[in-house]
Amino acid sequence: MSLKGKDIISALQFTREEVEYLFRLAEKLRKEIDEKGILDYAKGKIMVTAFFEPSTRTKLSFQFAMKRLGGEVIDFEVTTSSLAKGETDIDTLRIIDGYNPDVIVLRQKKPHFPEQIAPMIKAPIINGGDGWNEHPTQALLDVYTIWREFGYVDGLTIGIMGDLKYGRTPSSLSYLLSKFKDITIYYIAPQPLQIRDEVVEKIEGKVTYYKVEKLEEVIDKLDVLYVTRLQKERLPDPSMYEKLKGIYKVDLQVLAKAKKIPVIMHPLPRTWELDVSVDNLRQARYFEQAQNGMYIRAALLKEVLGV
Ligand code: ASP
C-alpha cells in the first residue's frame, strides 16, 4: 500500500486493504505511543493545520498525532491572519505551500474546496472537513472504533441518525462502510434532514440501506447507533433550526424500549440530541471514539509522509 504523498480528499478513495492496514497501524502506534510518549518517525517533518472553520477534535488530534510521531506542527491562525485584510483562502494556501510543509490539514466551509485546491498545492492535502460534503478522517476513526469494538466490520447494521443532509460525517461514514461486505445502514431522520441522494447513489449496490423517520422503528436491529447534531450553522434558514430543534433525541427513556442497546457513537460536539444520562452506559463509545481519532490520524500521517 502506498499513500505516500497522496491527497486525502474523500472516504471513497480508500481501498478496503488500505483501511484495514491503517487500523492495524493505528493499533501498533497506540502501543508504541503508550510506551514511549513521543516517537521519531516524523522527525524533521512539518505539518500545517489550516482550519478556516472552527474545530476542536480534528485539529487537536492531528496536532497531537504529529507531535507523537516526533514531527513539528505549525497552526495557521485564521483570526489573526491577512484573511482579515481580504486575502483569499487560495492565496493563503499558496503562501503556506511556498514554505514547503510536508503535509497540510485543511478545513474549509466550501464543499469540494480541497479537491479544487489540491492540484495547485505541492504538499499533500488532507481534507479535515469541507462544508457539508465530507470528513474522510472522521470516517476513518468512526469505522476504526467499530472495528475495535466488534473485531470486524462485515455484516454489521448501523443506524445513522440526525442531520444527514447538512452533516458531512454521515456521507463519509457511508462511503467508508461501503468498502466492507454485507453492511446494512438505516438512515434515521425526519424528512427535511434525510440523507442526500448524491450520497446513496455512490453506495448503491454496495450497501443495503433504508430511510426511516423514527429510531423506535429500527433500534432492535442495530449493532451501532451513530447520532449526529443538527448542523445549525449550515441550515439555509435560521427559522429551520427553531422548527427542528429537539425533533430527535437519544436518552435513557428511548433506549429503555430497546431489547438490546446498540453501541452508541457520536462525532461530537453534541447539543440536545444525545442526553448526558447516556454517558454512563457501557455501550456509550463517543469519548473513546474521539480518542481513537488521534491514533488513526497518526497512522494516516505516517503513511502520507512515507516515514
Ligand atoms: N465535528 C464533526 C464535523 O466537523 C461533527 C459536527 O460538527 O457535527 O463535521
Adjacency order of strands in the biggest sheet: 7-6-5-8-9
Strand element count: 9
Oligomer: single chain
Strand proportion: 5-15%
CATH class of the largest domain: Alpha Beta
Mean pLDDT: 97
Query: What is the architecture of the largest domain at the second tier of CATH?
Result: 3-Layer(aba) Sandwich
Q: What do we call the CATH homologous superfamily of the largest domain? A: Aspartate/ornithine carbamoyltransferase
- CATH topology label of the largest domain: Rossmann fold
Structural class based on helices, strands and sheet pairing: alpha/beta
Report the bound ligands by name, code or SMILES. aspartic acid
SS element count, helices = 10
Silhouette: globular
Helix content: 25-40%
Beginning-to-end CA distance, first to last residue:
13 Å
Verbal overview:
- The chain has helices spanning 16-36, 57-68, 89-98, 113-117, 136-150, 169-177, 197-203, 238-244, 252-256, 286-305; strands at 46-51, 72-76, 103-108, 125-130, 157-161, 184-188, 208-212, 224-227, 263-265.
- The chain is built from ten helices and nine strands.
- 44% of the residues are buried.
- Strand 5 (157-161), helix 6 (169-177) and strand 6 form a beta-alpha-beta unit.
- It has two domains: 11-133 and 293-305, Rossmann fold (3-Layer(aba) Sandwich); 136-290, 3-Layer(aba) Sandwich (Rossmann fold).
- The longest helix has 21 residues, at 16-36.
- It is globular.
- The protein has 307 residues and is of the alpha/beta class.
- It has a five-stranded parallel β-sheet with strand order 7-6-5-8-9, covered by helices on one side. The protein has a four-stranded parallel β-sheet with strand order 2-1-3-4, sandwiched between helices.
- Helix 1 packs across helix 10 (286-305) and helix 5 packs across helix 6 (169-177).
- It binds aspartic acid.
- Aspartic acid binds next to loops.
